[in-house]
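From the shared-data thread, chain only:
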Amino acid sequence: MKIITIMDEFVEPQKTAETKSIRGILSKYADPKSAENEKGAWARAVVNNYDNT
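Structure, as tokens:
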């Protein structure tokens, strides 16, 4: 039985395609008008659902 060991210094890194972050990929779906509405949306939802006054 033979064991072959590959050493990192002999392996050339593979060139990959340019990667984008999720933010970059989904930026075409961004709506600046909606961004303002999203600020505080969670807090408003909590008040709407759990306000017992």
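The chain has a mean pLDDT of 78.
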